[in-house]
Amino acid sequence: MTVRIAHISDTHLGARPRRGVKHNVWGVEMRSRLLENDFYERFAELFDRIVELNPRADLVVHSGDLYDSPWENNPSQPPVVAQETAIKVLKEFIEKTDIPVLILEGNHGLYRSLKVSLLDSLKLAVPGLDVATQVDLTRAFSKEEPLMYSYPKVDVFCFPFMEESVLESTGLMSDFNDWISSCQTPTSKKVSIAVAHGMTIDRSLHSGIFEMGFDYIALGHDHSQHKHAKNAWYAGSPERWRFDETRHEKGFLVVDIEHNKQPEVTPIHLEYARPVYNEKMAINPDDDEPTLIEKVEHWIAERGLKKPWEPTTSARIRLVFEGQAKRVSGFELSMAMEALRTKILVQDANYNVSQLVWNIRQPDIEHSPSAYPEIDSEYLIEDPEEDFRTYLETLDVDERYDEATLTKIAVRALKFSVSRSDEKLSFETYSEGEE
Length: 435
Known about the structure:
By secondary structure, this protein is an alpha/beta fold. The chain folds into 2 domains: 3-269, Purple Acid Phosphatase, chain A, domain 2; 276-431, no CATH class. The chain has 11 helices and 17 strands. A 6-stranded mixed β-sheet has the order 6-5-4-1-13-14. A 6-stranded mixed β-sheet has the order 7-8-9-10-12-11, with no helix packed on it. The protein has a 3-stranded parallel β-sheet with strand order 15-16-17, covered by helices on one side. The chain is globular.
């Protein structure tokens, strides 16, 4: 017996790009901002495309991050429109098709300090919807019960987001692995799948899942749609959440599964009216401010973006300047780009651009984005260490102060400001990890 599932993930409803965005433009007037609305449209498009599948799907699984918030950098609930969109789209889909939908809880949309979930309230609003939350995981683990849903053709075992570091800090890592092997093991002759939200890089993808003999493993958390193992795939995100996702094919997966056979996975890709650019731009040694700004203007014109404003096709742009010029500092280039951005994004400007951001990479500055996971976002500060060093170059700093130490203090302060830690910034916390 073949089971067909539609595997979707990482829809991030309520994501609101803010940095360098054209002001006072709406996707839906007085309800959702232009770029925020792109995520709602992609969510609706996914389910419209699933309705059209032939043969029809037996089940839709969402492998985490339905909403964009709350998460570490934003403790707020998702916008009202995000919650309304989830209810409306899911309710209409289930009523129209009678196809069940299962949504897993990821690291976004998760209240880390509360034993409640937005998915539970969504389930109350949408008959026929099943959810698996971190609270459900904790309960099943403590009671030594499986966290699974059984449908006519398939059993689905659920693994909501759970970091190994949390289990290790509480001494439960061994018990958790025992729970996976004893409670989360398929026992019937039906098709069995696992749904998990995690990645190896942050130690949130538990290796035991791959030893249980599941016929398919539906993964979320990585926004790149790709095969992870012989029977495990990431569906990826349907919308460009970060600028570096422009190289990804976006959409969802259609998976045909038979028991004890290799699943047949068909990627379905979406097309976009809104272009998103993530481009490098070289700084030559003899460049000055006018030369670089002229280069940017030429780049914009070459891509057909110097034309009247059209909301649905207006571009999102991120430029990464690489190199160093003798006659212009990084700070001076940033000021010139600020002036250009104002010119481009002002109302009634003759540019079809909805967002313009940039980063300046100097050859003598090393930076590892992974060192600042709390603040490594296109929508915040992309390189805090570099930005602060560039800022110091504009000041007459007393020679008694070490600039490297000032930079470390500033970056540490920024990390504290965006984290949800109750710890206070002090000499002791600054000194952690220092020689």
